[in-house]
Structures are given as C-alpha cells and as structure tokens.
Write a structure and sequence with these properties.
By secondary structure, this protein is of the alpha/beta class. The chain contains 17 helices and 17 strands. The protein has two domains: 187 residues, Aspartate Aminotransferase, domain 1 (Alpha-Beta Complex), CATH 3.90.1150.10; 255 residues, Type I PLP-dependent aspartate aminotransferase-like (Major domain) (Aspartate Aminotransferase, domain 2, 3-Layer(aba) Sandwich). The strands form four sheets. It has an eight-stranded mixed sheet, sandwiched between helices. The protein has a four-stranded mixed sheet with strand order 1-2-3-16. A three-stranded antiparallel sheet has the order 14-15-17. A hairpin with a 2-residue loop joins β1 and β2. The structure holds pyridoxal-5'-phosphate (PLP). The site of pyridoxal-5'-phosphate has 16 residues, from α6.
C-alpha cells in the first residue's frame, strides 16, 4: 500500500526506528518479516517487546494502551494475575499429555452452563480448526456438500471459508447472492464453487439463497456480529430469518462466536435468542493461549461419537485440549462473570458515545459501529450495515487514523477494530477519545479537511 504523505507517517517512522530495522532484518528469515499476515501494515509494524495489563511496550520503548487485544482474544489484558497463577501451577504438572487431559471437563461444563444451545463441546487449537471441523460435521450429518457464508464474514483461514471476505459487490448493487471471490491465492477451485455468498443483514438475500441452494447446503456459517468485516451487529430480524430459513431447508446453522462470545455472558446468541445447531468458539476461552472449540446440541454433536458409524467425524490435533490452554481458559471465564460483562459493556458504551461526540462536534464523515466491548470507527458517510460499505470507506484516512492513534499511545487493529479488556477503566477510554480528537486535528492541519468533513467549516 502506498501511504499518503502526512506528518502522522513521519512521526510514526521517527518514533519506531528500532522496529523498522527489525522488520528489515526479519524479512531475510520470515517472509514479510512476520508470520501473521494480518499484522503487517505500511510503513512497517512496530514489534512488541513487552505487555502487562492494558499496556504494551514496543522495541523502541513506546507504550500504548492495547485496544487491539490480539484481535479480541485478551479480554483480561496481558498477564492477569489469576490466569498467570493458574497457568503457572499447571506448567509444573505438564504442558501436554499422551493420554487425555482431565482438565478439559471443567471448561466444557462451564461453557455448557454459559451457552444455552450447547450440550457437548470438543476442543482444538484455533477458531480456524473449530470452524473447519464444524463444517465437516455439517456435511457428514446432512450428506450435502455446499456451504453458505456471508459477505465480510471471517471464519479462519481454512479453504472453504477463505473466500468472500473482500472484493464484494458495490454497496448499490442489487445482487444479494453471489459467487465468493478468493481471499488468498492457492485455494482449490471447489472453495469458490461450493460456497454461496450472501449479503449480510439482507433478509431477501437469505431467502433467495435458500430458494436457490437450500437443498444443496450442508451449513450456513454466520457471525452474529461481523467482526473482521467491520464490527457490524446483525439486525435481530435478519438473524431470525437465517434461523428460520436454514431450519426449513434442513441446513445446519453454525454460529461462529469466536469473537462474539465476549459480548454477552451466554455469547451473542443469548442476546438475540438464537439457537444454532453448532457454535464455534476460540480466543477468550483460551485465556491468552491457543484454543478452539466446536460445540452444539447433543443430536448434532453425536456425529463425533462412535454411534455415527461411517458418518463419524474426527477431531484431532496433537495439542488439542492441552491442559495449559483449558486451564487458562477456565480461569479467564471464571473472571468474566456478569459483573465483569457489565463493566466491559459500560466502557464500550462510553467509547462509542465519546467517539460519536467527536464526530458530531467536528462534523466528520465518519461512523462508529459495535456492541458491548467492541467497536470500530469507519470513514464513511453512513453507518455501515454490511461489509460492502466498510470496503468502500476511505482507506487513506483509515491507515492515518491507525498510525495517528499509535503515535498517541493507542494500539488498535489496522482496520480500526477496538476491543476492551477488564483491567481498563474510564480513563483509558477517555485517553482513546482525546487521542482520536487530536489525530483529527492533526489531519485537518495537514490538509485533509475535504476528505474528513461533511461540510467545510464556516
Ligand atoms: C469469527 C472468527 N472465526 C474464526 C476465526 C479464526 O480463529 P483463529 O484465529 O483462532 O484461527 C476468527 C479469527 O479472528 C474469527 O474472528
């Protein structure tokens, strides 16, 4: 990406020389200088050296409040003492076993208590694995091949869901059901051919997809709030239509709560009253360690049992359900009680209101979306209700805002997704809001008014 000229970029470069040198050196050993493609950005990423509580420190010694939270995973920040203590005790008793680890049962039972649609849970190592296994289970149960997903939905990086995140139809296009474009090179042809792509928050698109493809679909996979696709909540009647239409056509509904489990005590499905067949989880249920889980109603999960015969689906993985991840996850979820949820969601409201007040006071062409402990700023005229509008946002302003906030001690994701953690308090939110206001002031000073403002200041 070619960065626009701006004082923000110059300041970022000047403040992060050690990271810049590291990024250059790292490219000789690791393609692009880092293993995680999504963390890469222009002009270069700052590399983290240390993290404690809400704070991160990079190689140059810059301290930032972590509103990124490793893409929503670190709901208790870094190194929460209760989680550290639980993990430290477990480390002394082994990190991975040659026979099943009994420690997984506590976490499975806790998830069953929390999420009403869940009777059984299987653990693996990531959200990617959880979704991959849930899709297989749906194919085995239905004997069907195709799946459907929504525009902008991210469900990990396995083949059949690594399509349709980007290169979407234009906002104004009447097309609601389409063939998904690949989000990476190297996919098998089937990943495109076998996936039906549906516009998010569009009930008529859901009905059309089911009319055309319902009899061929094994599963519809959906996030009850688009995470990577823009932190865009589902409209309640849209989710209800998805449940009704999938049930009518005998299609398994997979609710991907890898991100959204953090938004309500019983997962976002509890907020909407959604009863999916399968639920996939990861991130917060690992307490900062790698984990994934596929869960669901007893009859759906029976596909993993011996009684499924030649339809039996296997959940594998050398480190699946390792005692460290499930111990950390159990400790993290114990801490995430209803009072913690209220605290987090209240901070989320404060952040959305604070950012909106800057938008209104300055007359910005911007909007804030989100729910509970997550939100995202968009450089768009209207509040986006799907990923098409997010894709159409001003990408220069997006990267400049990200860098401008980083210069002021605020770490967000590059696309602007923000996730709160329980050690935060109102002062951290107020720091974010004033850093945003100052970033906008710098952009105006820098000559960006015509792109930023709804109308010229009088
Ligand atoms: C909704 C959703 N599903 C699945 C995944 C994949 O999870 P993981 O990164 O643990 O493989 C993600 C990751 O961000 C996600 O946001």
């Amino acid at each position: 990406m070619i960065l626009p000229a701006s004082s923000i970029v110059r300041t970022f470069e000047a403040n992060n020389r050690t990271s810049q040198a590291h990024a250059q050196r790292a490219q000789a050993a690791v393609p692009t200088g880092m293993s995680r493609s999504l963390l890469r950005h222009s002009p270069f990423a700052s590399f983290t050296a240390d993290a404690k509580g809400v704070w991160t420190t990079d190689l140059d010694g810059n301290r930032r409040i972590d509103f990124h939270g490793n893409y929503a995973a670190l709901i208790h920040g870094h190194g929460h003492p209760v989680i550290l203590d639980a993990v430290t005790q477990q480390l002394a008793h082994g990190t991975a076993y040659s026979t099943p680890a009994g420690q997984e049962l506590r976490l499975a039972n806790h998830l069953k208590e929390r999420v009403s649609s869940i009777d059984r849970v299987l653990f693996n190592n990531s959200g990617t694995e959880a979704v991959l296994v849930a899709l297989r289970a749906a194919r085995a149960l239905t004997g069907r091949n195709r799946i459907a997903k929504f525009e902008g939905g991210y469900h990990g990086f396995s083949d059949f869901v690594m399509v349709g995140g980007h290169a979407l139809p234009p906002v104004s296009s009447p097309i609601g059901v389409s063939i998904a474009q690949p989000d990476t090179a190297g996919l098998p042809l089937a990943a495109q051919q076998d996936v039906v792509l549906i516009r998010y928050n569009d009930i008529s698109a859901v009905r059309e997809a089911m009319r055309r493809y319902g009899h061929e679909l094994a599963a519809v996979v959906i996030e009850p709030m688009l995470g990577s696709g823009g932190v865009i909540p589902a409209k309640p009647d849209f989710l209800a239509a998805v449940r009704e239409e999938t049930a009518k056509s005998g299609v398994m509904l997979i609710c991907d709560e890898v991100i959204t489990l953090r938004l309500a005590y019983g997962g976002l499905q509890s907020h909407y009253g959604l009863e999916p067949d399968f639920t996939t989880m990861a991130k917060i249920i690992g307490g900062g360690f790698p984990i994934g889980a596929v869960a669901g109603r007893a009859d759906a999960m029976s596909v993993f049992e011996d009684c499924a015969g030649d339809r039996q689906v296997f959940n594998l993985g050398t480190f699946s359900a390792n005692p460290v991840s499930v111990t950390a996850g159990y400790a993290a979820l114990q801490l995430l009680d209803p009072a913690a949820m209220t605290h987090l969601n209240g901070l989320g409201d404060r952040a959305r209101e604070g950012l909106q007040s800057v938008i209104d006071r300055r007359g910005l062409r911007a909007a804030v979306t989100g729910l509970g402990s997550m939100f995202q700023l968009h450089w768009t005229d209207q509040t986006p209700t799907d990923s098409r509008a997010v894709e159409a946002a001003d990408s220069d302003l997006k990267i400049l805002t990200f860098l401008g906030l980083a210069n002021r001690g605020i770490q967000t994701s590059m696309r602007g997704m923000c996730c709160l953690s329980t050690p935060m308090d109102p002062s951290h939110i107020d720091h974010l809001v004033s850093a945003f206001d100052d970033t906008v002031a710098e952009l105006i000073e820098d000559g960006w008014s015509s792109r930023l403002l709804r109308r010229s200041p009088s």
